[in-house]
Each structure stands twice: as C-alpha cells, then as structure tokens.
Design brief:
119 residues
Length: 119
Amino acid sequence: MDDIEKIVPDWAFRINCAVTVTDADCNIIYMNERSRETFAARGGKNLIGHNLMEYHNDRSKAIIRRLLEDGGTNCYTIEKQGLRKMIFQTAWRDADNRIAGLAEISMVIPSAMPHYVRD
C-alpha cells in the first residue's frame, strides 16, 4: 500500500467525482476510482507514477507551475462528451506547510445549476 493510500479515507476512493493528486514534481501519486475511469483512454486506468505535464498543453503547464509556486487554486468548467464538469485544482501542503503537490477534483454538474447567495 502506498503512503498516500494510508492517509486518504476509503470513501474518497469511491466518491462520485474524480480525485487526482500529484507530488511537487507533478508525478501522479493518487487516483481514485472515478479518476482512473476518466483517464482510461489515456493509456490505462492507472496513471500513478506518470508525470502530469505529459498530458497538458503549454498554457495548462504554465497554470500548473503557478499553482505549485504560489500555492493557489484554479477553478473552471468544461463540457466534454456531452457532460458539463467543474474542475477544482489546488495546491496541497505537507505537515511542515510546504507545497507538496496538486490535487484536482473533477465533478459532473448539471447544465443549469441553482446558485444561492447566503449572507
């Protein structure tokens, strides 16, 4: 069992969204079940050990580098194969508060979604 699998709760593996985690060098260190299904078309269900940069264009690579430098967050929506998705990417930190990599959560969302303002 990999170290990350020891700290990620079991529910995260079967949650109904894709969760992908990298280390600070952009190597994929964790993929939940949905993430493996999502990326099956890119050379196999399990891309653990592959470098995230292999799968991105120059614009996306620049965003990834920025997130790793400043510890920021990137959030957007896409439509792919008739499904609308929200993508949430953020840096994660180790126990010493150093940027340790990136986490991405990708979830299918409805084309029309309610929005509530709660003050």
